[in-house]
Amino acid sequence: MTRALVLFAHPCPESFSAALHTTVVDTLTERGWDVDDCDLNAEGFTPVLTEAERRGYHDEPENIGPVSDYVERVRTADALIMVFPVWNFGYPAILKGFLDRVFLPGVSFRLEEGKVKPNLTHIKRLAAVTTYGGTRTRAFLVGDPPRKCVTRAVWHVCRPQKMRYLALYDMNRASDTKRGGFLASVGREMREF
User: Fold this and answer.
1) Helix crossing, 93-102 with 68-75: angle to 10°?
2) Which of 111, 121, 146, 150 is deepest in the core (most CB within 10 A)?
3) What is the pLDDT of residue 182?
4) How much is the pLDDT for 25?
5) pTM above the 0.90 mark?
6) How many angstroms separate the Cα of 19 from the Cα of each of 66, 73, 84, 91, 129?
7) Are strands 79-86 and 3-8 parallel, antiparallel or unpaired?
8) What are the residues facing 83 on neighbouring strands?
9) CB-based contacts of 79: which residues, under 8 Å, 6+ apart?
10) What is the pLDDT of residue 142?
11) What span, in angstroms and rounded, lies between the C-alpha atoms of 133 and 101?
């Protein structure tokens, strides 16, 4: 059975991101996957890397102490699906903080002679489901940091066999039909993921 860690990062339960999150979780559950649904806001995850955590960042395995439960959830996942809106051309702070605090040396990567080596290679599938307020062109002009972070940085530490980046651009002007079409597309993608 595939175990999926779904990281959800939006504070409002009535948001379109919440609808996307529900679609992801429900579809994977219907497929018989073991879904670890991690709603970062609902769980009260603290995204701020403290001074003590930063000073002990490279001290393995003690560095995992403050976030050991989340580290265990990452370590037992076969798939990682991130559901989040793009705000100010980046991740919501709570998701960025999760990556800062949980994707630690000895967890998501190893440092060998100063080079980052992947350490989450048990994650065979990686996906992001996201929305952008602006157009794809606007995102492209600023380098589309969230896309690059998922498809390069997170991808690098996992080296998954399957990768999907599902984005609805121009959310600020999206009609009900466009949003519904994207929800349906996400459902199809998760059925085949």
Assistant:
1) 90
2) 146
3) 98
4) 98
5) yes
6) 31, 23, 11, 18, 11
7) parallel
8) 8, 129
9) 2, 3, 4, 5, 33, 123, 124, 125, 126, 127, 193
10) 94
11) 27
Q: Give me the phi and psi of 122, to 5 degrees please.
A: -75, -15
Distance CA 30, CA 132 (A): 28
pLDDT at residue 3, as a whole number: 97
Asked whether the beta carbons of 154 and 43 are under 8 A apart, the reply is no
Radius of gyration of the chain (CA): 16
Q: Which two tokens stand for residue 123?
A: 């994650």
Tokens of 112: 């060998």
Q: What is the DSSP string of the chain?
A: --EEEEEE--S-TTSHHHHHHHHHHHHHHHTT-EEEEEETTTTT---PPPHHHHHTTTSTTGGGGGGHHHHHHHHT-SEEEEEEEEBTTB--HHHHHHHHHHS-BTTTEEEETTEEEE--TT--EEEEEEEESS-HHHHHHTT-HHHHIIIIIIHHHH--SEEEEEEE--GGG--HHHHHHHHHHHHHHHHH-
Give the model's confidence band at 141: pLDDT under 50 very low, under 70 low, under 90 confident, else very high. Answer: very high
Contact, 160 vs 126, CB < 8 A? yes
Q: What is the pLDDT of residue 88?
A: 93
